[in-house]
Amino acid sequence: MRGKTVIVTGANSGIGKATAAAIVKLQGRVIMACRNQARAEEAARDIRQETGADGGQVVVKQLDLASLESVRSFCEDIIKEEPRLDVLINNAGVYQCPYTRTEDGFEMQFGVNHLGHFLLTNLLLDLLKRSAPSRIVVVSSKLYKHGDINFEDLNSEQFYDKAFAYSRSKLANLLFTWELACRLEGSGVTVNALTPGIVRTNLGRHVHIPVLAKPLFNLLSWGLFKSPEDGAQTSVYLASCPDVDGVQGKCFADCKPLDLLDKAMDQEVASKLWDISEVMVGITT
């Protein structure tokens, strides 16, 4: 990855931090795009210490995916400051939070996991195309299987179930990947998705576990869940490996192609979701 610049969203902890560290070890330059500046700076110090990287190789930039204004501001800075962008890794996510809304009034999980990344990717596409061959990596989840896209209630105003809302946002990630792949054909930019599996991260902070069950849960999680480093392997593979040169619109798990349910590749739904997402984030084409 020497000479390549990679943006990783949500790089201050968990899979994102492990992904950033692995790319730096491959001699890539990482821009850590994070909501919490202080935590991101701390994570960047850890990565520099672990890898021996210098300040220019690990850069922290503020990005709040729950704010379209923040996304636009971040992209303006990147376009102004960066001559090239080789890889964009859409990693950040919110998991099963109580019903809350983003700054722009969207249900939080759909707003951050799908719409924030949708706008981010679209605003950086020209730079990615100018840097071709370049790659976009989208972190989804196998929980997409439990979601569906209800165009009558994308904002969960009629009904909200935090687990279902997460699954819907992860299905939206896959439909976005599918539609974007069609649009990028022949551009030199590839987009692929992945499901990392169950990983020990702070993503589950909104999940309630009874106090008495916590010691057992923690013990089991160490035995059964992947470490962040293991969880990051497929993200790093899709960002760096020559094996996936030119591979377009696929989903991977454990660095191997994954067969998806038909609903994750429904061209009609993907196209409609794209059009509605453009309206929601204010992209005019």
UniProtKB/TrEMBL annotation:
Keyword terms: Oxidoreductase
SUPFAM superfamilies noted in UniProt: NAD(P)-binding Rossmann-fold domains (SSF51735)
A Pfam short name: adh_short
InterPro entries xref list: NAD(P)-bd_dom_sf (IPR036291), SDR_fam (IPR002347)
The keyword Oxidoreductase is assigned to this record: yes
Keyword NADP assigned: no
Family as reported in the entry's similarity comment: Belongs to the short-chain dehydrogenases/reductases (SDR) family.
UniProt name for this protein: Retinol dehydrogenase 14
Organism encoding this protein: Ilyodon furcidens
Lineage, opening ranks: Eukaryota, Metazoa, Chordata, Craniata, Vertebrata
